[in-house]
Amino acid sequence: MHKSHDTELPYKLAVLRDRNKDLKQVWYVEFYAWDEVTSKLVRKRTSISMNFRDVKSRTAEGNRLVRACNDLLKKGYHFKKQAADLKPDAIKKNDDLIKALEFILSATSVSVSAKTIISYQAAINKLKLFADKRSLYISEFKSGDAILFRDFMLNNLKNSARTANNTTQFLLSMFSKYQERTGIEINPFKVKSLKEPATMKNVAFTDEDKATVEKELMLHHPELYLFTRMIYYGFIRPGEILKLQFGHVRMQEGYVLVHGLMSKSGKTETAQIIPALAHELQTRMVFMKPDYYLFSAGMKPGKFPLSKQVPFRRHEKVLEKLGLIQKGYTLYSWKHTGAVKAYKAGVGIKELQGLLRHSSIQITDIYLKSLGLRTDPNIKNYNW
Asked: CA 132 → CA 98, 129, 135, 192, distances in Å?
C-alpha cells in the first residue's frame, strides 16, 4: 500500500491483468483508490479495447493505462463525495474554470471508467498549459476563448484535428455537468468541430482486388466468405450478423429480421434477402435449429454467439496474405463495395435507402457521395 504525495491518502498501484496473454479474453487494468464515502480502499477496473488484436499492441496500451492511473494516484486521485451533496450556490461562488472542472471530475469519478477519468484529466491539463499560470474565469470564458484554446492545441501542442476535437468534447461534457449543478446557460466549449482529414479506411474494393479476395475466401475460408456475403448483399453490419440466430432468417418471406437489441439504430428492422444472398444461405439453412447462431465457434453454426473480433482478425489475415492490408480495406469494405456495385447496376437511390436501412434519402445521398459516386442526374440524357 502507498500514500499519495499531496493528500497522504492510501492507494494501491495499478497493475495490468493480461489473462495469461489470452487475446480471446478481456484484459484490464486494476487499481485501488480511497473512497471518502466508505472510508476505505475501493477497487477500480478499466478494460482494454479488444481492437488491440495482438499481444504487443494490447500490452503497450495496458502499460500506458497503468502509467496514467499511477500518475493520478500519486497526485492524490481518490473518490470524493458526489457534487449533488453540495449546495449549488457553493459551486457558483467559485469562478475559476479549471478548479470547477477538476471539482466536477473528482465528484463524478465513481460513476465513470478509469479511461474516462484519464481522458478528462488530460483535457484539463492541456487547458492548464493554455492558461499558463493565469486564471480563467467562467464568467469571462466564451466560445471564442475555446477556439483560441483549440488553436493552441493545434499549433503549440501539435495535436491533430481529431485529438483537438476530442479534447474539446471532453471539456464540453464536464462543463455540461457543471451546468446541471449551477444553472449556467451557456457552455463555452460548444463550438463547431474541426473538419478532420479523410482517412483511407473501409474503402470499397476495386474490381480486381474484390475478385482476388473472393477467390481466396471461397477456396480457403468458406465460413468467412458467407459472412462477407451477408454484408455485401444484405448490407447487414458485422456486429448485427454476430447476433443473428436462424430464427431471424425468414427465407420464405425474403428478409432477415434485425431486432432493435442488435441493430445500430436501436429499432427492429428487416434486411432484404436478394436472390444472390439466398443462394449463399441455402446450404446453411437446411438443418439448423431456430435458436442456433449462424456463426459460432470456428464461424460455424452453434449454440453460442461468436466473439466480435474473430471475423475481423480472420479477414485481416487474408488481406495480409494477399498483400492488400495497406490499401485501407477492412471487413466493412464489403458493405461499401456492395453499395457501389448496386448503384452502378441501376438500383435507384430510393431503393438503396431501404436496402441500407437509412432513415432518410438524404443520408443515402451523402453516403453514396462519400464513396465517390455522383448521385445527381446525368443531364446529357435529357432533351427538352
From this structure: 12, 5, 9, 25
Summarize pLDDT for 49-81 with one digit per residue, the tens. Answer: 777 778 888 898 889 889 888 888 887 777 766
Pairing of strands 28-35, 10-17: antiparallel
Q: How does DSSP classify residue 292?
A: S
Sheet bearing 249-250, strands edge to edge: 249-250, 255-258, 269-272
In the chain, the number of structural domains is 3
Range of the domain at 160: 89-197
State the pLDDT confidence band at 42, using cuts at 50, 70 and 90.
Answer: confident
- 261 and 143 in a common domain: no
Question: Which residue shows C-alpha cell 464540453?
Answer: 172
Note whether residue 384 is domain-resident. no
The upper half-sphere exposure of residue 226, i.e. CA atoms within 13 Å in the direction of its Cβ, equals: 17
pTM of the model: 0.53
Please say which residue of 164, 197, 230 terminates a domain: 197
Is residue 203 within 8 Å of 327, Cβ to Cβ?
Answer: yes
The residues facing 47 across adjacent strands are 28
Q: Residue 142's pLDDT is what?
A: 93
Q: What's the CATH number where 167 sits? A: 1.10.150.130
The beta strand positions in the chain, using DSSP E, are 2-3, 10-17, 28-35, 40-47, 249-250, 255-258, 269-272
- Is 77 within 8 Å of 125 (Cβ atoms)? no
**What grid cell was written down for 301?**
453454426
- Together in a domain, 275 and 216: yes
Domain boundary among 59, 79, 99: 79
294 with 364, same domain: the answer is yes
Main-chain phi, psi angles of 16, to 5 degrees: -90, 125
Report the 10 Å Cβ neighbour count for 113. 13
Q: pLDDT tens digit string along 161-219?
A: 889 999 999 999 999 988 888 888 889 999 998 886 655 567 889 999 999 999 999 99
